[in-house]
Write a structure and sequence with these properties.
The complex is a heterodimer of chains A (252) and B (288). Chain A is an alpha/beta fold and 252 residues long. Helix content of chain A is 37%, strand content 25%. Chain A has a six-stranded mixed beta sheet with strand order 6-7-8-3-9-10, with helices on both faces. Chain A has a four-stranded antiparallel beta sheet with strand order 2-1-4-5, covered by helices on one side. Chain B is built from eleven helices and no strands. Classes of the chains: A alpha/beta (252), B mainly alpha (288).
């Protein structure tokens, strides 16, 4: 089951570049929350702070509090524990090129020392079914490399890989921006199904996509969160002038 | 208009043909020396290769026949010891340079040292190992020869490993980290595995290079006219034996030196092909 996220006074830097400033945001459990905003506004940095991937860059720094299911991820947990509970799907599909489809999905479990083969088989099948890829790959699981799939299939493989470690939260950083419309539609259907089981945070440049999949939407601009409300409200009657300018296409 | 268009497409076709021709010519120039050497070796050496060449030890001057069986075994032992030293140290060093020490002063110092080591003449390497191992021990040995070859392998293995690891896209590293895999494990199981074809090529390059080295062995392995498989005794090696025979005034020995050169090259090609074959099995369809 998904858990809620409570972000308080989050600040993040790359070197001297203050990329996130005083972000406060409650992300509800078992819903999809979309983050929109022009390029470079900090939305990718923000999701990378939710699974402590931001700090993998040596010049990066972060302050503030992030509670995930009540757990303070910067005070009371190690990065590897957080990343097992908070899965991530990246902008460009990034399957492990030397691994089979099966091994790609099982990678998170295997590399963390899980070796029960029966259980692995089941988890791989369930994860691939949950990511709507099973029917397309079930005959080549161990024969084909993850890199041999099409771009859209690769991205669903990456979603299956993230789901296999049984996270509570799924972060998606523009998961469909490198895909064609048909693949994009499949990913969106998937998000719709997955949000009953996971808390989903999706960064997107595509405002229609935000409107289609998310109950809540946050608008980021220049490292600050301008407005956070129900998606319906953001797209029909935003409270902030800047939000309105952005969604009506006046900039960005 | 029409004629100008035709002229342009004609120029384009001509320059395309010229570029292709140049590329083909360069390829031929690259391959030509190898083919020439190989053909010449077969011409001079093939007639002296017999079963005895692979089963007998060298005979004294004047006696016909004799072979280089002990030198072939010796080369295998020396290269085995050398690889056991050079490959693990070189790969570990490369992993450090690319994954853990990126941008640190220590890494820059190691990289610089490796590049300098790569340029050290092989005879100097032999003298260094001579004074470090042979002199304290008081005798020449296969072990010291292996150490000399191993040290020569380190910089090549180290730098190619680093280059190959740096070619692995960062997205692959991030994918592993985002699954909650600890960094060291992600490096070993994901990054190194992804780069392994290139790393193996680097090891093979280093192996093939030191397989033909004579200079570092003169003061260390020293050579041996009889059988020896012991690490603490002088041992024969193909390049050493070729060197001794080629310098001798006897025609019979000259012929054996040619045959030895041919066998050395063929064995190197076989060893490299074998490793390539073994490591290429199990590669998946569509893997890059």
């Amino acid at each position: 089951m998904g858990v809620g996220i409570e972000v308080t006074n989050l600040n993040a830097w790359y070197g001297t570049n203050h990329t996130l400033q005083d972000i406060n945001l409650p992300i509800p459990a078992n819903h999809a929350t979309a983050l929109i905003g022009p390029s470079g506004c900090g939305k990718s940095t923000f999701v990378r702070c939710l699974n402590r991937m931001h700090e993998t860059n040596p010049i990066a720094r972060v302050t503030g509090t992030v509670l995930i299911g009540g757990l303070d991820i910067y005070q009371d947990a190690k990065p590897v524990e957080i990343r097992r509970r908070v899965g991530m799907v990246f902008q460009r599909p990034n399957p492990f090129p030397t691994m089979s489809i099966y091994d790609n999905v099982a990678a998170g479990l295997k590399l963390n020392g899980y070796s029960n083969r029966r259980a692995l088989d089941e988890i791989v099948e369930r994860s691939l079914k949950n990511s709507a890829l099973w029917d397309e790959v079930k005959d080549d699981l161990k024969k084909k490399s993850g890199a041999s799939l099409s771009g859209g299939q690769q991205q669903r493989l990456c979603i299956a890989r993230a789901l296999a470690v049984d996270p509570e939260v799924l972060l998606m950083d523009e998961p469909a921006s490198a895909l064609d419309p048909v693949s994009t539609a499949k990913i969106e259907d998937l998000i719709f199904q997955l949000k009953s089981q996971y808390t989903i945070v999706i960064v997107t440049h595509n405002m229609q996509q935000a409107a289609r999949v998310a109950e809540k939407t946050g608008f980021f601009l220049n490292g600050r969160m301008v407005e956070f409300d129900s998606t319906h409200k953001i797209f029909t009657n935003p409270s902030d002038k800047r939000t309105e300018d952005y969604i009506t296409g006046r900039f960005g | 208009m029409q004629s100008e268009h035709r002229l342009r497409s004609r120029i384009r076709a001509l320059s395309d043909g010229a570029a292709t021709g140049l590329a083909v010519l360069s390829t031929l120039l690259v391959v030509a020396p190898l083919v020439a050497i190989f053909v010449y070796l077969i011409y001079r050496g093939a007639s002296s290769i017999s079963l005895a060449f692979f089963t007998d030890v060298p005979k004294p001057v004047g006696e016909p026949g004799g072979g280089m069986a002990n030198a072939i075994l010796g080369s295998a032992i020396l290269l085995g010891v050398g690889s056991l030293i050079g490959v693990p140290i070189g790969i570990s060093g490369g992993i450090f340079l690319a994954e853990f020490g990126r941008g640190t002063k220590l890494a820059n110092a190691i990289r610089f040292t490796a590049d300098v080591l790569n340029g050290v003449p092989s005879i100097v390497m032999g003298i260094a190992v001579y004074s470090l191992i042979v002199v304290p021990q008081g005798h020449f040995s296969a072990f010291s020869g292996g150490v000399a070859l191993g040290i020569m392998m380190i910089p090549t293995v180290c730098r190619t490993t680093e280059e190959m690891l740096l070619m692995v896209p960062n997205a692959v590293r991030e994918a592993a980290l985002a699954l909650g895999v600890p960094n060291w494990r992600s490096v070993l199981a994901i990054t190194v595995k992804t780069a392994s074809p290139g790393i193996i090529t680097g090891c093979m390059l280093a192996f093939a290079r030191v397989a033909g080295e004579t200079a570092p062995l003169i003061f260390t392995a020293f050579g041996n006219v009889g059988w020896s498989a012991r690490l603490d005794e002088p041992i024969s090696a193909l390049p050493l034996q070729i060197y001794v025979y080629a310098l001798s005034p006897y025609d019979e020995w000259h012929r054996l030196a040619w045959a030895g050169s041919l066998v050395l090259i063929v064995l190197i090609v076989l060893a490299v092909s074998l490793v390539r074959y073994v490591t290429s099995r199990g590669v998946l369809k569509g893997a890059s």
